[in-house]
Write a structure and sequence with these properties.
By secondary structure, the protein is of the alpha/beta class. The chain is built from nine helices and 14 strands. Strands 3-2-1-4-5-7-6 form a seven-stranded parallel β-sheet, covered by helices on one side. A hairpin with a 2-residue loop joins β13 (268-275) and β14.
């Protein structure tokens, strides 16, 4: 049995991660660390876990007593954590923050559809960002053939959980409900990893223009992505279906896709069309699952040589 610890256990991603790990057949959760909630039952904060676990938030982190550590803290805090703690040589780490997404300090970028073999050989994994996951999965097949030679245009809509658990003016229900807004146009932080990685795949970084939007729903990301490309629709579909043939969670649909096909699952659902010299891809994921905690468990499975789908056979809802 793999013993797991969670650092930064009070947020949305940690709550989803804990939910997944508690039902994972090969994992035992040893501790959930939170300085702000230490001593409280985990289910007092993550209320959906009532009756599921007697765990309480811990003020201490016994790194020597676990096989894998998940870091679910805010961006910048993972490096601070390792500056203050000694990492056991045998410990595997999955970091959900952006601190090591440049693969510094021996981390491997944890997008399984691209780096599955490297993740299997790794000890340290940097989990991708949520927007970055949806957008890269929409573009990797084109990049693999060197076809991102023209500007890539992305508009993507995310749910309110993408802003984290701490309330703010733009996450307040009365502001968010029945409302849409643009934020960080052309400068969202996930552009760094998107451009870096696609440039590694096709040797030249593409120019990606990205306009993120806030949606009036709790979870999920829908990304609309297009670029100039001479592929026919049949050839584009064949390329995507071949690229993701061995990817258990990335599905290429021959029909238009929608967000509800992906929410509450670890799937990325893609549609691919060609229009007057452009290829248009729609990518749908759950930002808390495939965009965060579900992908972290997928990486756990790869790190320990388990079935990639273990603990992740999640079903969404038709309504």
């Amino acid at each position: 049995m793999i013993r797991a610890g969670i650092i930064g256990g009070a947020g949305y991603t940690a709550g989803e991660l804990l939910r997944l790990l508690l039902q994972h057949p090969g994992v035992e959760v040893a501790f959930v660390h939170s300085t702000s909630q230490a001593g409280l039952p985990v289910s007092d904060v993550h209320e959906n876990l009532i009756g599921e676990t007697p765990l309480r938030f811990s003020a201490e982190a016994d790194l020597g007593g676990v096989d894998v550590l998940f870091l679910c803290m805010g961006h910048g805090k993972s490096k601070q954590f390792w500056a203050e703690h000694q990492r056991p040589a045998s410990l595997r780490v999955v970091d959900l923050a952006q601190d090591y997404r440049d693969e510094a300090d021996g981390y491997v970028y944890g997008l399984p559809e691209w780096q599955r073999d490297r993740i299997r050989q790794a000890r340290l994994v940097a989990n991708p960002g949520c927007f970055a996951t949806a957008i890269q999965l929409a573009l990797l097949p084109l990049a693999s053939k060197g076809l991102l030679q023209n500007e890539v245009h992305v508009t993507a809509l995310t749910g309110s959980t993408g802003a984290g658990v701490k309330p703010g003016a733009t996450t307040h229900f009365s502001w968010r409900a029945d409302n849409l807004s643009v934020y960080k146009p052309f400068e969202h932080q996930h552009l760094i990893e998107i451009t870096r990685n696609l440039g590694l795949v096709q040797q030249t970084p593409p120019r990606v223009t990205f306009v993120p939007m806030r949606g009036d729903f709790a979870r999920g990301i829908l990304a609309s992505v297009y670029t100039d490309c001479a592929l026919s629709e049949a050839d584009a579909l064949a390329l995507y279906e071949d690229y993701y043939a061995d990817a258990p969670f990335t599905v290429v649909s021959r029909r238009p896709v929608n967000l509800k096909q992906a929410v509450n699952t670890n799937k990325c659902v893609l549609s691919v069309e060609a229009h007057r010299g452009k290829v248009h891809v729609v990518s749908c994921i759950d930002n808390l699952l495939k965009g965060a905690s579900g992908q972290a468990v997928q990486n756990l499975n790869l790190l320990f040589g388990l079935d990639e789908r273990s603990g992740l056979r999640l079903k969404g809802s038709a309504f």
